[in-house]
Amino acid sequence: MGFTPVLNRGWNLLWFEEPISLEHIDVLAEITHAISTPIYVGEDLCLHHRFHDLLGNQATDIIMPDISKYDGLSECRRIVNIAKICYIPFVPHKTAVR
After folding, report:
1. Half-sphere exposure of 39 (CA within 13 A, CB side)
2. Contact call for residues 59 and 28 (beta carbons, < 8 A)
3. Which of 9, 33, 51, 80 has the most crowded CB, counting CB atoms within 10 A?
């Protein structure tokens, strides 16, 4: 990875949010394992099966879904349950009030 040495320079970043498109889960998994900075993803994922793919590939350290994009709290609950099974923390993305 071309930019992993830059991220591992000891800048003490708290997190790195969605470093690449989530269409490339395999590459995201490589980045997640190559750097010490926690990777947060999930703002643009809206269905639990997408999180299942993401977590099944160990492509993130923390999921950060935008709850306002879901079809009700039931879908959000499914996502939280998938994260719990995979021992991945769940942090809701800051949601804008419209």
Report:
1. 27
2. yes
3. 51
The CA distance from 98 to 81, in Å, is 28
Are 37 and 1 in contact by the 8 Å Cβ rule? The answer is no
> What's this model's pTM, rounded to 2 decimal places?
0.76
- DSSP line for 37-82: SPEEE-TT--SHHHHHHHHHTT--SEE---GGGSSSHHHHHHHHHH
**The pairing of beta strand 16-17 with beta strand 39-41:** parallel
pLDDT tens track of the chain, all 98 residues? 555 555 566 677 788 888 888 888 999 999 999 888 899 998 877 777 788 888 888 999 999 888 777 777 788 888 889 899 999 998 888 765 55
The owner of tokens 């349950």 is 81
